[in-house]
């Protein structure tokens, strides 16, 4: 048997076919294991089944497809390929003789990190798996690329050799580490060695790493540009999507205005079927043939090395070359290839004949590409410049201009879609303008016709273009009205009042629908719209003048205004009147049917019309334009207020082409007569109308996929259940044809909503067992409709549904319970010790290093995992890249922040200039993680661990003694701790264990552990009337904000660290948030605290449930003890918080001011505005403002010019200097009237201080940048720059003095110590108070050559803190005292007060159980020594 990856790819899919087709001659009768990952809602099995359903596998029976292709679901980039132990064991025990690794990301524009993960990590991971297989002689075949020689192209006499390309002086292992980490070392190497892209570079590095492993047989196969097949499975086969030379032709045929440069150089191609035959020949060490192979294939096999056996079985004694190139050898006949010039002509001719391109444009462009550019002998830099001037810049300018328009022509949308790949010609340039010569065993047969193959490539591109155009035409949503004509109604001479009901249709959609079905003879209907529309300016007027009238939701049963509207419509008509309304009164928020309303029908019946009829009209959607907002409303339980801005924004999205609802089907049921009587008959009519609607509901593949993901059942089971006759489900017409909804719902809520499209079908089956849920799914069922299913698929769906319903009931019941008390747990705190060692952790293969598995397992859990040894999320960090011209630019990995993934061309230059240093990308970067193997083992015995596990209910996941967990929980995020973690010089104390409490467990107070509060993160109750919420203290700020927003509230506390900091941490440090001006600090938000002390539970007692007393005069409060306690008095387990309804309006603004003195006066005046004070105000000094400018993305040429012009004009008019200008960023939050008034006051004040408004975009960017800028410290440390921030509160009268003195102290200390470079010091003003403000200082310095740099930095920082105290500032505004600031305690408190607090600590915690040793309790070590 063999193991194969990359089965879904171009080479992999055909190699799979060839292996199975020739399994007998290759001695692999057992077939092939394929490792495939799930993707886009499709399981691995489903993806492989789709592949095997193609015509090229028709030689296999369905049984053979199942038995010969064994699917293993996994991801080769993850440890153990993300497979279960049973799967790995099964593979290892199988008789696998060969492992073919074809999986790779063939993208020339990937980042270094992505290329390393896709092309190196995956290969090393699979190589490790190969070593674990039962057979020790299993061969590992790695598919590389022929272009791994840097800038070398070979010559006719000295072709590129089949050997490793030397990377000297660069180390392959360090390159791999750099690609995954700082990237600068790898980026510099890639440019110096002449690799044109990250794909070829990563392949070269991977070859070296694989060859470094001795004792196994690794074969490296290097194909050149792989093109369509020459024979198998048929001539011109090019896979499922265009690639390489076919992709280039497709881009030209779709966008002939791009720039190319095609010379007379030969195309270094190789047919894909030749690649597969070559791979098998090299791998199995044998030649073989097949009756269908023609002379071309025979001669190809005859030309292979003479020492290879011609037999049909493998020669075990013949070991093939470890590196083999799959390309025509340099000695091949000239007629076996073709030139790029000829290919350009071929594609142009075919495109013109088939109508893909304009002949004049095509041939004119051809002259430039094939004559002028080659004659000019352009360099890559020159070609890139021309491409930017004539293609990229005009395209960016056009798109920028069109983004300002309320609508976009179709061509603009097409150009926007093409924009990401418009640079493809530059990626092809190195290959299309150089001749490559290879040394290879593969010599082209004399009768191989290169020109014929060239035309085959062009035809393949033509086929893909035809397919794309066909799919594009089919994607257009069209209403299916064929069923309506069956129910056409004669209108001449009658005064009938017609009423049609529409399901899930808004006002605008309903109007458009009527225009679509005008062939029925209907006039434009009078639409019964929600009264909300009437209050919207312009829109309400337009609706009213378009025959709409308005209904008030939840109004009186006898609505006189509705009656008047109906009478007016009925009496004013000259022909039958048509009215369109919702039978359910309003739109469902989750696609379920709702109980039908009868008010409209009652009014209609009371008119006394004899011939009023109802035509039930059902509209089936795949997607809903505003589904996300509907789901949000369903989750929150209240509707968003309609406004003109929201409506116009929605219409803009429609015209911009950003709204995709997939396909829509409209159908109608038989007409129903409205009875003149009232009461029971009206109810029956309403439910009959809804039943008709339900009978016309259709289900598409889109809904089936969503149900599959929601219920965890296969799509086959879902479809089988729906096709069961007892359900009566109608399948979407042509559901298996092209043109459906482009993607499966990407989150659980959307998946549920899509599935509930047909949820009513299952309602009658659960009437007896789950009556409430049955009524929710199908409100129109009758007791006689109760059904019982004997179908297995139906029962499977019902079982899953009922399980979800029962779980929901439990959750609701749990949340409804009263949290009378929380954990009465004696949680003990931190027993730590000191250990020092300095060894590198990260090796060439970090995935496979046993000592790093703990770190990596944490990091591979998902993108929301917190980084280790650095601030922030694992998937987000700044990295340095080097351009081919040597210039440096920085990007931020990930997608979380506004600047993520965007080139920051000014940051590296800014750092170099400000710190007077040069960032050397070739230099060894600072280690990303120290060696945790040398951490001293935990003092906790196995018996102690077992005891803790038993106290935690037997849950072993809640206790850990792993070094990575102990280091993570024993460290903070100070520069000292991060420096220690990254060097391995761990000087702080580490816990012996990390334990996670539940809610009602007791832990022995003498055990020494760090308590992980992440399991206590629930919202226990919410009292909306009092505006209170009871929340467990382990919840992070991000999670708390999300939970409150779901309920429609906010706590108003949003510190810079809210993504990771917890509620308990906020209380323990007495934290402050960015929106303090509006909501106050944590002490203003917290109403009550519950904690566990050494003597038990400490909490308030209440006679009433879910409430808090608020302010009371009852002595020293527990809240006062816990605020700022540094976790030294107990463990905070929960708190009652003040909550506010979500702000109606939020806006940003910014202002530029001439200098910092003016800025201080401005924010001081702003602080006096009380109610007019914005929620958040930040004043950046000139240095920090320029740093923010350096963090701006590299925008398009049009945007750059506009920004530069605006800045220059503004500076000139305001008499500003770039060296003195400062910026204030503002955020407003509140009601619309409040925000409007605050903005007016702010603008008047800004004008009075000579400020220039910089706009809301700058204000929001500055606010968002707060979260991203925190990552800069760890990025700077990569290049031996140490930095940190510290804060203080300063009275207004001392503010200027403190800032000047502190900056001067840092500069003088740096100079006094003769440190390298120049320190960078900046500051910003944040929280504003009547009597002063919070000041943040940022200080960084170069540490290259500095002995013990962390201690030196700390000493300078301590001097700066002392200077702050000397000039009237506080020791800390909101960071707390912790350990770093504890030595200053004696300067801010009297000895008597300190002694009193220590005595209180001894009384509350006699044996120092809670030994965090923070703040003034840092001397408790003395107490400990006396106790023990």
Descriptive account of the structure:
- With 1428 residues, the protein is an alpha/beta fold.
- The strands form ten sheets. A seven-stranded parallel β-sheet has the order 3-2-1-4-5-6-9, sandwiched between helices. Strands 10, 11, 12, 13, 14, 15 and 16 form a seven-stranded mixed β-sheet that branches.
- Mean pLDDT is 76; it is low at 288-320, 476-521, 736-740, 815-863, 998-1006 and 1422-1428.
The assigned structural class equals: alpha/beta
Q: Specify the overall morphology.
A: globular
Radius of gyration: 36 Å
Estimate what percentage of residues fall within beta strands. 5-15%
Mean pLDDT: 76
* Quaternary: single chain
Give me the count of strands: 39
Structure in a nutshell:
This protein is of the alpha/beta class and 1428 residues long.
